[in-house]
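During the no-cost extension, the postdoctoral fellow (Dr. R.K.) reprocessed legacy sequence entries with the updated structure-token encoder. One reprocessed record is reproduced below for audit purposes.
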Amino acid sequence: IEAAERATLSPLRMVATDLDGKLHRAMAINEVSLLRQTAQSARLKIVVDGRVRMEELVCDGLMVATPAGSTAYNLSAHGPILPIGAKLLALTPVSAFRPRRWRGALLKAEAKVDIEVIHPDRRPVSASADNEEVRNIAKVTVETDPARTLKVLFDPGHALDERILREQFAF
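Re-encoded structure tokens follow.
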């Protein structure tokens, strides 16, 4: 254990507001994802740190991923791989239809992301913090929880940084 490489992870805090106005709170180590609940695409408004960044994203979903989660669902949605110690979050669309060429954004780890569902009564969306799902949401707020950290130990011969680099150069 003394020879182990250490990493500190900061989980995400999700506050989802459902159509009845009820608040649902959850934590995520990997990502918070919003996904359409029906065959119709989701329509989402994205606000970062109080500033509207996208009035309408038409997509199957959207996720906010931590460095720990960037190699999971985020990667399969063509999001960037983040080094484990990076003070960044990946904002990654899932099957974006409009704007067609938008591939997402990298945000400071301290960013506060508000995602509003446009017409949530006609185009229902669910939100998941890792494996905890809330259905029929109207709005979700996602931010890093500064009060919580997780310490992770890695075998020096199998360091996560090296595995992330190998994944980035694998074709």
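Helices lie at 73-76, 160-168. The two ends are 33 Å apart (CA to CA). The remaining legacy entries will be reprocessed before the final report is submitted.
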